[in-house]
Design a protein that fits this description.
Layout (H helix, E strand, L loop, with lengths): L1 H12 L2 E5 L3 H13 L3 E5 L2 H10 L4 E5 L7 H9 L8 E6 L4 H10 L3 E4 L4 H54 L6 E4 L2 E8 L7 E9 L2 E9 L4 H13 L11 E4 L3 E4 L2 H14 L7 E9 L4 E7 L5 E3 L5 E3 L17 E5 L5 E5 L1 H4 L10 H12 L5 H15 L10 E7 L4
Parallel strand pairs: 1-2, 1-3, 3-4, 4-5
Antiparallel strand pairs: 6-7, 7-18, 8-9, 9-12, 10-11, 12-13, 13-16, 14-15, 14-17, 17-18
Helix pairs in contact: 1-6, 3-4
InterPro entries: Bact_Sigma-Reg (IPR052016), CheY-like_superfamily (IPR011006), PPM-type-like_dom_sf (IPR036457), PPM-type_phosphatase-like_dom (IPR001932), Sig_transdc_resp-reg_receiver (IPR001789)
Protein name: Fused response regulator/phosphatase
GO molecular function: phosphatase activity
């Protein structure tokens, strides 16, 4: 009963069976059993004739005698395996050979199974059923491979489209920083922005309403990727260097000119805007500073960003600030403002944690002490944009191999040279 069910299932799986034997009687015996079980059967009296059939319309299962004049069953099997076919053909060799070496030759030639002559009807049915199971699994695997291949093709196209969009997004993000260095009177602000991917969550910038005042900042949005980049785009609008009327760090006075708001007020305004937007989960760290180019007085607010590095002209250096709470993390934060006086030749470096938390080949992270050593190493006859680029290059040389950039790296350098 079980054998009858299996052979019925096999007849639904197997389309055609090719019987190859130079003996008409042997072909008749095999074909009679196969037709009785419901298979479509075709025949060939030689290997050469069988090959012609297989070239035009390959069968699902082949029963071939081993010993035939001209092309033997072994040669036929080898030739059959070289044919280009979409599916798999299950090959059974009919033989009176039982030596292990002969069986090995048959397997090497591409045979899947063997039947000993004279063929027993029950054994033939079992071999055919086994072949049907193999073909069924092969077709299932082929179908899965087809689905995987089509899915991968769709993913490639989607990836290409996303990659194209990200490249365009990077151009848009780069437009948020229209210039990387600008001279304000005798002083200068220089910027560095190196995203770890196509787009990043760091933002640097500068702007001036004129009248000897300049504002500059460094921002690091939480997370990475598209959502962080979208936040930087929004912040780029809030702190626009092109449109004073859109810049929250500026206020119009007497309907005639713009002035810089105190840094602590800017932090409060940005925090109120971000926390009020219920659809935004991102927050960001920031150092925002304003400088009076006549007196050298710099006022700053630190909101969770790394401590600004003050580099004195006489070689002294110190890290400023007390930390602070990131912008957009909590509502109604009371930010603290602090200030310092710069002398001609002094510089102020604002940097992201992409510097200090960079993993090093020697182990550990760069941290503040490592950053200071790196700055002193690069600070030989260089200034402005050249100094920042050299600083980044030196960092890449000591970065842990194989790590790549794990985070965006950015910096803002203010060089004060007197009124």
């Amino acid at each position: 009963m079980k054998g009858d069910i299996e052979i019925q299932q096999a007849s639904r799986t197997i389309g055609r069976v090719l019987v190859v034997d130079d003996s008409r009687l042997q072909r008749h015996i095999l074909m009679s059993s196969l037709k009785k079980w419901g298979f479509e059967v075709i025949e060939a009296e030689s290997g050469e004739q069988a090959m012609d059939i297989c070239r035009n319309d390959p069968p699902d299962v082949i029963l071939s005698d081993w010993m035939m004049p001209g092309m033997s069953g072994l040669d036929f099997c080898r030739a059959f395996r070289t044919l280009p076919m979409e599916g798999y053909g299950y090959f059974i060799l009919l033989t009176s050979k039982s030596d292990k070496n002969d069986i090995a030759k048959g397997l090497d030639a591409g045979a899947d199974d063997f039947l000993t002559k004279p063929v027993n009807s029950h054994e033939l049915r079992a071999r055919i059923s086994a072949g049907a199971r193999i073909l069924s699994m092969q077709r299932e695997l082929s179908e899965k491979n087809r689905v995987i291949s089509e899915t991968l093709d769709k993913l490639r196209k989607a990836h290409d489209a996303i990659d194209k969009d990200l490249i365009q997004a990077r151009k848009i993000q780069e437009s948020l920083v229209p210039e990387f260095t600008h001279v304000f009177g005798a002083s200068r602000v220089s910027l560095l922005l190196k995203p770890c991917g196509h787009i990043g969550g760091d933002l640097v910038g500068m702007f001036s309403p004129g009248a000897g005042r300049v504002g500059f900042y460094g921002i690091d949005v939480s997370g990475h990727g598209i959502t962080s980049a979208m936040m930087t785009a929004k912040l780029g609008g809030y702190l626009s260097s092109t449109y004073n009327d859109q810049n929250v760090a500026m206020e119009k006075r007497h309907e005639s000119f713009y002035a810089l708001r105190p840094p602590v007020e800017v932090a409060r305004i940005l925090n109120d805007r971000v926390t009020a937007d219920t659809g935004v989960d991102e927050y960001f760290t920031m150092v925002y500073a304003t400088a009076d180019l006549k007196t050298g007085r710099v006022q700053m607010v630190q909101a969770g960003h790394p401590y600004p590095l003050l580099l004195r002209a006489d070689g002294r250096a110190e890290f400023l600030g007390e930390g602070g709470v990131p912008v957009g993390l909590l509502p109604n934060v009371d930010y603290q403002q602090f200030e310092t006086d710069l002398l001609p030749g002094d510089r102020l470096l604002i940097y992201s944690d992409g510097f200090t938390e960079c993993r090093l080949a020697a182990g550990g992270m760069l941290q503040q002490e490592g950053l200071l050593k790196l700055v002193r190493r690069c600070d030989v006859g260089q200034s402005g944009q050249e100094l920042l680029e050299d600083l980044f290059w030196e960092l890449r040389q000591i970065m842990a191999p194989g790590e790549g950039m794990e985070d965006d790296i950015s910096a803002t350098l203010f060089e004060y040279n007197g009124p």
